[in-house]
Amino acid sequence: MRLSSALIVSAFLLAASSAASADSRVFIVANQADGYGVDECLARGDKCGAHAARSYCQSREFAQATAYRRVDPDEITGAVPKDGGDKCSGHGCGEYVAITCQR
User: Fold this and answer.
1) How far is CA 101 from CA 24, 44, 92, in A?
2) Does the predicted TM-score (pTM) go above 0.85?
3) How far is CA 35 from the centre of its chain?
4) Range of 46's domain?
């Protein structure tokens, strides 16, 4: 009887810990041209953007980046001003990247 109770409790704790470790969050980042092409790698979802996305997630105490892609400003509700208030000129202005981070 004790063994079966211990197994049930262990299974419950294992399930609870795996659910907590699967915490993920999507960050919306302005896609600013850096002259090195990292912005293009992130926006296209190319393999070359993986390191930048992972570094971004790790700087926010997440373990890894599970996805990254360009997003249209219309996909972002209420977070992006339409008037272009920031003084951005050149390639990549008004473009955003979504980076999904996981703990």
Assistant:
1) 5, 17, 23
2) no
3) 22
4) 33-80+90-103
